[in-house]
Each structure stands twice: as structure tokens, then as C-alpha cells.
Design a protein that fits this description.
This protein is of the alpha/beta class and 559 residues long.
Length: 559
């Protein structure tokens, strides 16, 4: 059993499918790196809606097993697994009585003076029944139903390899949501099928599967993906791979499948993902005979295929570097998508508040934006060096504070802070710091962290956020770190958000400044890398930011 992460929220896939539809399930799967085909998605929705098992059939390596693994990971629910193989016993799959423990219990009862009949009843106590993996999943479903948690997922892999007797034993729990064992008091499972485990069974040969079991499932045929679909899969499962490597892997796979008859066992998507992941981790920048040779074991499935692949290294090198219209165009489109969604529609923990972040910056700073560009005409002194109109100086300070509040409040929400009190308290705190001459451009460089320290003294930092000991302008949060930079002339506020690990998503830069090109005071950049992120200088030109590996995030008019 693969446990769920207790630090992350769990999602009931049946409820998500019923309330939010196909897009919600597709997002959950893509969040775990699985790109599902539309037909398979429709079949999965029907299975979830009817609380029936999904039977995924197709050639090896097409992603059947990965489907339920991604569903369990995306929903953060426990995953119970059974892999069929010849000679497997029913006790490992379903469960059985522990005969030795029963005999010891009966002997102890007789030794204690109990009659034979009463001692015989002691044999059938619930504690002597040992559940197999399938009934463990149904027992967990009963516990989850009582606690109000989502049901677990159950994978029965290569179900056609289970003995016919075991297949028939599976009929009861799969159809009803519970199982009754001989001599066991009560049942194991739930009465409501909607609370039963989410079951997915896989088979490489549908003809070998018994008809009674097939009749109790929703069938989906999973065929090998097209080259364009493979690019999307590679992008989702190996987001750190470069565009060149993803295209090269897709071209290699296409060449082996369509132009190399000597390879009897064609590699599946699983082998190609392994190849791409290994080459990406080892820093391979170009596919050549020398760089490809160490990784052919990811694609070969027997000795003869491995020998033929080694003999065709020159052909594979040419295929990987040759132009392919469909693959090249698909790779280009995949990498032009917003970097905040590295896995299609995946929502990273950092990203959950990004759209609201930008909207909040817009709403709170919309009026200020018009004033930010005008503040240079509202100087604090006149041309003769005398004090200017105090109302105008006050207007300039209000412009600064309003822009800072919009940027800081919105960016605070991006790191998972509470939507209401914390972000508003942070804004009020920056306003108070402004009145004390500690915020934005009014603070000297040596006091750049004064605003955060003053907020800490006032008790206005959000819960869980602390000022970094070595940097006064940085906040440590449960998701990572926020680093703030302020500039006096031209006035600007910049926030850099760094995730704690890869799972937190890409780093972000949010900048609110008066000298932004294109007439827009607000700009957001997302890092194109999940590791080894190169940080540009504070308030660096956009060309320098892009050269450091960042990409501008387009904002719609509504944002």
C-alpha cells in the first residue's frame, strides 16, 4: 500500500467528477504528470459516476498502470496494489483465516477448561482473519467513510494472470462494495458503492480475462500515443527536460516503431520516459551515438533487441536530429505555454493563488498605477530647491504606499497565506512603515529590511512567516521564501518567490515599478527551470531577466 501525504489535502475523485466534470479529473491527472486521452477520460468519468471498476486494456507500456497511480497521487489518496501472476494464492489477494493462530486459540481455550463447542467458536474470532490487499482496500474504505475521508484507490495489475477462482472471488466486492468471508461476522467494506475504493484493473490481453469479470467493469482501450501525444506526455512527466531532448526522444520512438522491423518488442511510453529522464538528469545536451549508447537499456526488452539497437546507433542519431514537422511543431507549442503550468493545467502549490495575486495587484493598484507614472512630475521640492506643495509631496507618498500594498498583499496570497486578515494586515503594516519613512524608496539601502522588521515588531507578519536571520528583506514561509526589494528612483517594489522544493513549482518575480516598458506598471516572470534557478539582479532589465532563464507571464485585461 502506498500511503497518502498527510500534509496535503485529499480529493474525492468521484465527487470531483460529479461536481466539476472532465476538466477537473484531467487537471488532477496532469498534476501527477499523466496526460489522458479524451476517450479514456470519458470512460473514467462513467466509471467514477457509476462507482464501477475501470478495466484498462492495451499493449504493454501504454500507460495503463500509470493511470491509476497518477489518479491516486493527484487526489492524494492511499493506493493498494495487486499484481497478477500465475500460481498466486487467494490469501494474498483476498484474504484467509490464519489456521495456526486458530489452532493455538482453540487449544488455549480447552486448556482453560472450556468445552469443545465453546472452544471451537473461539477459532472464528475476527482477529484471526487476515485480509489480502483487496480486502485491505475495502477495509480502508470503511474507515475513510466513517472519518469523512475520500476512498482509497485499488490497482489490480495484469488481472488476466490471476487464477479463475480468484477472479470469481473478486466479483462480490467489485459489484457490491463489500465482501463476506465464510465464518466471519459481518462484512468488510461499505454498503454505499460510492464510498467503495476506486478500482482500476489492467490487462495486456483482454481475451484471457473471464467474461463475468469483464461484465462488471467499464472498458477503456488504451492505444499507443501518437508522436504529438507523446510530446505532451514527455513534457508532463519530465518537465525539466529541454525542448530538444523531448523532441529527440519522440523522434527516436517514432523511428523504432515505424522504421525498424528488426526490433520485435517495440518500446512503450514508459521506456521512453525512462530514457528521457536519465538523459536529462545526466545533462545530455545533444543525442549522438556516444551519448545515446549508455541508455539503450531503457528501450530494449530482450537481448536480440538490444543487439539490434546497438547496431543501429547511427540510424538513431540521424532520426533524433532530423526535422519532423509534427513533432517539431508540437514541441514548439508545448514550450510556448505559460510556464506557470509546466504540466499542462497542473496547479502548483505556489500557483494556486497566482491568478488572484495578479487580480489583487490590479484591483488595489489600479488607481495607483496612474499616479505611479505621474509621481515624477510631483516632486518633493520645486526647481529652486525649496519645499514643494506639501499636498503634492503627500500625494507622492500615497502613490508609493498604494502600489506597495497592491503588490505585497497580492504576492503574500501566492505563498498560501490567508486570503483576508493576513494580507490586509501586511498592507496596513507597510502603510504604517511608510508613515515612519521605512518603506519603498524612502528607506536607505542599509535599512532595506526595516519595513519587515517593523511589521514583526508590530505583530503583523502572517502566521508561519518569519524574517530570515541572515537577510532582513526576506520572509521564510511554509512553502519557501519571499524576498523583497525596494527602489527610490524610479520608484519600484519587487518580490521574488522561491519554492521550498520542486513540488512547490517554479520561482516567480512580481515587479511593480514606474519605469516598466510597454506602459504597464506590473510585470510577472516565471522561471523556466525547477532547479538551479539563476536569479537576476534586483530590478534588472527585462532582457537580463529573460537571459537568466525567466519568461514573462502574459496578463489578461481582466487580471
Amino acid at each position: 500500500m502506498r500511503p497518502c501525504d498527510p500534509n496535503k489535502p485529499s480529493v474525492d475523485p468521484r465527487r470531483a467528477a460529479r461536481q466539476e466534470g472532465a476538466d477537473a479529473i484531467a487537471r488532477l491527472l496532469r498534476g501527477a504528470g499523466y496526460v489522458i486521452k479524451r476517450k479514456t477520460l470519458n470512460d473514467l468519468l462513467v466509471a467514477l459516476d457509476l462507482a464501477m471498476p475501470l478495466l484498462a486494456a492495451g499493449p504493454a507500456g501504454t500507460g495503463k498502470t500509470s493511470l491509476v497511480e497518477a489518479l491516486a497521487e493527484g487526489c492524494n489518496v492511499p493506493l493498494y496494489e495487486v499484481t497478477g501472476h500465475p500460481g498466486q494464492e487467494a490469501r494474498d489477494v483476498i484474504g484467509a483465516w490464519n489456521r495456526r493462530a486458530q489452532d493455538r486459540a482453540e487449544d488455549a481455550a480447552i486448556a482453560a477448561g472450556l468445552g469443545l463447542e465453546e472452544a471451537g467458536h473461539r477459532r472464528w474470532a475476527d482477529e484471526y482473519f487476515e485480509c489480502g490487499e483487496v480486502l485491505d482496500a475495502y477495509r480502508e474504505a470503511a474507515r475513510a467513510a466513517e472519518a469523512g475521508d475520500p476512498p482509497p484507490a485499488l490497482l489490480i495489475d495484469e488481472v488476466e494472470k490471476l487464477d479463475a477462482g480468484i477472479q470469481h472471488t473478486l466479483l462480490q466486492p467489485l459489484a457490491r462494495g463489500f465482501a463476506a468471508a465464510p465464518k466471519l461476522k459481518g462484512v468488510i467494506g461499505v454498503a454505499d458503492p460510492m464510498l467503495a475504493p476506486v478500482v482500476v484493473m489492467t490487462t495486456n490481453d483482454l481475451k484471457k480475462l473471464g467474461e463475468p469479470l469483464r461484465d462488471r467493469c467499464i472498458l477503456t482501450m488504451i492505444e499507443p500515443p501518437t508522436p504529438a501525444e507523446e510530446v505532451a506526455v514527455f513534457r508532463a512527466r519530465v518537465p525539466q527536460a529541454s525542448a530538444y531532448l523531448i523532441g529527440a526522444a519522440a523522434k527516436l520512438l517514432h523511428k523504432i516503431r515505424t522504421g525498424m522491423d528488426e526490433i520485435t518488442h517495440k518500446p512503450g511510453i514508459r521506456g521512453a520516459v525512462l530514457l528521457l529522464r536519465a538523459m536529462s538528469r545526466h545533462g545530455v545536451e545533444r543525442v549522438t551515438r556516444r551519448t545515446l549508447e549508455p541508455y539503450l537499456g531503457c528501450l530494449a526488452r530482450d537481448g536480440e533487441d538490444e543487439k539490434n539497437l546497438y547496431a543501429a546507433l547511427a540510424t538513431l542519431e540521424l532520426a533524433a536530429n532530423r526535422s519532423h514537422a509534427v513533432i517539431d511543431e508540437t514541441v514548439r507549442l508545448e514550450f510556448e505555454k505559460a510556464r506557470l503550468r509546466l504540466c499542462g493545467e497542473r496547479r502548483w502549490p505556489h500557483e494556486r493563488g497566482v491568478q488572484r495575486t495578479v487580480g489583487l495587484c490590479r484591483r488595489r493598484g489600479r488607481a495607483a498605477r496612474r499616479r505611479i507614472f505621474a509621481h515624477q512630475r510631483i516632486g518633493a521640492t520645486d526647481r529652486g530647491g525649496r519645499a514643494a506643495n506639501p499636498d503634492r509631496a503627500k500625494q507622492r507618498q500615497q502613490s508609493v504606499a498604494s502600489g506597495a500594498r497592491g503588490a505585497v498583499c497580492g504576492h503574500a496570497r501566492r505563498d498560501g497565506w490567508r486570503d483576508g486578515d493576513d494580507s490586509r494586515a501586511l498592507a496596513r503594516g507597510f502603510g504604517a512603515c511608510r508613515r515612519g519613512g521605512m518603506a519603498c524608496g524612502h528607506a536607505k539601502e542599509r535599512d532595506r529590511g526595516g519595513a519587515l522588521r517593523k511589521l514583526e515588531a508590530m505583530g503583523m507578519l502572517p502566521a508561519g512567516a518569519v524574517i530570515a536571520a541572515d537577510k532582513g528583506n526576506a520572509l521564510a514561509t511554509p512553502y519557501g521564501a519571499l524576498i523583497f526589494h525596494y527602489r527610490a528612483a524610479p520608484i519600484g517594489v519587487e518580490a521574488l518567490s522561491l519554492g521550498r522544493d520542486k513540488a512547490a513549482g517554479p520561482a516567480l518575480i512580481v515587479r511593480l515599478a514606474a519605469d516598466m516598458p510597454g506602459g504597464d506598471a506590473l510585470k510577472v516572470w516565471a522561471s523556466t527551470r525547477l532547479d538551479n534557478v539563476q536569479l537576476p539582479r534586483p530590478f534588472a532589465d527585462e532582457s537580463e531577466v529573460i537571459a537568466a532563464g525567466w519568461q514573462a507571464e502574459k496578463l489578461s485585461a481582466s487580471q
